Amino acid sequence: MSQRTFGRIEVLLLAPLLALILAIAPSAALAQVHAHPDAEGTPVVRSLESLRDLDDQSWQVVAYREGPPGGPLRLRIVGYPGKVRLDHPTALEVRSGRLRWDLEDVTLASAALARDNRSAAAEFDLAPLLADLERNRPLRLRLPRVFSELAVPPYVVAEWRSLPDAPAP
Predict the structure, then answer these.
(1) CA 75 to CA 63: how far, in whole Å?
(2) Are strands 92-96 and 147-152 parallel, antiparallel or unpaired?
(3) Is 140 left (phi over 0), alpha (psi -120 to 50) or beta?
(4) pLDDT score for 22
(5) How far, in Å, CA of 22 to CA of 26, rounded?
(6) Is 120's pLDDT higher than 50?
(7) ∠ at Cα 136 (127, 19), nearest 5°?
(8) What is the pLDDT of residues 128-166, one digit of tens each?
(9) Relative to the CA of 158, which of 6, 12, 30, 90 has its CA 20 to 30 Å away?
């Protein structure tokens, strides 16, 4: 048997194995948790996703932790500037089945967001939600007078749940 034939047989045998691995662990391939220092050198660990609400509007959803494990956990929701104006304070309603959380609006505690006159971003304290979640359940977000439902899939919830203990850069 020639080397070329042997190489083709290896590929034919390994391809199904690779497909099986990817099918079993799809969330690992989708993980979007990144660690980097911010402009001042503070370590930041974040999950960044673009999600669409029921009106097909796109929203950037950023869950992040500043500093070492145990640091503050925030959820930032950003709309397209000029298309949306977010008033503060407005609590973010989060639902999963019969469970409900109202996350505190902490936007004005961020100097950068407080002085941004576009008002297209809001930031919320994510810690109470993460403290209660025991599984990677799908979530539904509602921001009154802004969007009625923004679905968060389980793989994103898994990313969020990994933030409190993720290593800092």
Answers:
(1) 4
(2) unpaired
(3) beta
(4) 42
(5) 6
(6) yes
(7) 135
(8) 999 999 999 999 999 998 999 999 999 999 999 999 999
(9) 90
Angstrom distance (rounded) from CA 46 to CA 63: 6
CA distances from 99 to 34, 94, 110, 164, 167 (A): 29, 8, 29, 21, 30
Q: Which two tokens stand for residue 163?
A: 């933030």
Residue 110: other Cβ atoms inside 10 A: 14
Sheet with strand 92-96: strands edge to edge: 99-103, 92-96, 139-143, 147-152
Q: Kind and range of the H or E element at 10?
A: helix 3-24
For residue 46 the two structure tokens come to 């974040």
Structure-token match 């505190």, residue found: 104
